[in-house]
Amino acid sequence: VNKFFYKVIFIDEVWSEFEKIYDFKREHVEKSDLENFIKKYFTEAGTELTDCDLDDWKEMPKKLMRIQDNHLRKWALELNRIWLRLCREMQPDKNPDRTSLIYVPHRFIVPGGRFREYYYWDAYWIIKGLIACEMYGFIPNGGRVYYLRRSQPPLFAGMIYEYIEATKDFEFLKTILPAVIEEFRFWQNNRTVIVKKGKYAHHLFHYNTTTNVERPESFAVDHMIGKQVPVADRRKLFQDIASAAESGWDFTSRWFRDKISGAFDFPNGVPTSLMRNSKEQWDYPNGWSPINHMIIEGLRKSDDPVSQEWAFNLASKWVLGNYMVYQKTGHMWEKVGI
Description:
By secondary structure, the protein is mainly α. The chain has 4 domains: 1-45, no CATH class; 48-190, no CATH class; 207-248, no CATH class; 251-337, no CATH class. The chain contains 11 helices and 7 strands. A 3-stranded antiparallel sheet has the order 1-2-3, with no helix packed on it. The chain has a two-stranded antiparallel ribbon with strand order 4-5. The protein has a two-stranded antiparallel sheet with strand order 6-7. The N and C termini lie far apart (57 Å). Residues 1-9 and 137-142 have low confidence and may be disordered. It comes from Dracunculus medinensis (Guinea worm). Belongs to the glycosyl hydrolase 37 family.
C-alpha cells in the first residue's frame, strides 16, 4: 500500500509540474523549461542498466576457426569480441516503476549502437550468433513497456529450434513449449485475417496493432505526420503506422508498391525494395541482414541445384560486401548500401 501510495503521489507531482510548462491548447514549450523539467525528474538514459560479463565467451570458437580464408577468419574473430561489449543486465536496486524497460531478471544482449533495449526479432539472429560462438545462454524477447501493444515478426519458435538443434536440451524444450504455444495462440486470436479465394477461406496472420496514438519512441515524428490529416482520421493513421512498425520494416514504401524485378542483380546483396528516392530506411539502396539471410536460407534449403547456387552467390556477395564496409569503417552496420 505504501509503495502504491508513493507511486501515485510521485506521478501526480510530475504531471502537475509538466502542466505548468505545457499548455495543451498550444504547441510551443520553451526549450529551457523542458530541459529543467527533464533534469529534475528523470535520470540519464541507460542508468537502469549495467554492463555484464559473458562467462562462457570463447576467444576462438571452433566454428569460426574452421573458416579457411585467413582474412575472413580474422574478421569473424574480431566480430566475436564485440559480444563482450553488448551484455547488459538491469540494476537490481532500480525501481522498475521508474523506467520504461520491461524488467527481466537475467542478462541479455542489446543490438548495439543507439539501442539500449532488446528487440524481438533481433533476438533470433543474436541467438544464432551466440550459438555459432559457442555461447548457449537464452535471450529474452521483449523491450520497453510502450512496446507491449505490438509484436514483431514471430520468430520465437525459430529461436527455440536453433537452440535445441545446437544443445539437444530437450528438457528445456519441455519447459519452454507452453510459451511457444501461447505465442502461436496470440497470433491466431489477435492477428488473423480470413482471405477468401473462390470457395476456399484461408486464415492468414497479418500485422495489426490495437494502439491508435503516436508511438512513444517516435512521438514527434508521428505527431507531425498526424497534423497532415483530418483529426477524425488520425487514430486510424496511428494504428496503421504502429502496425507497419510491428512488421519490423519501419518504414518502407513497399507498403504501397511492390516490385521485385532485378533484385538479385546488385553487387553486395539484395535491397529491401527497389523503390528509389523514398528516403525510407527499408528501401533502396539499403540491404538488411534479416532479409538477405531469409532469402539465402530459403534458396539453400531447396532441392533445386540452381536455387542453391543462387544462395551461395548471394551469401558470398553479402559477406564480402559487409567485410569491405567493416574494413573501411571499423564497424558493423544494421544496413548497408548494396
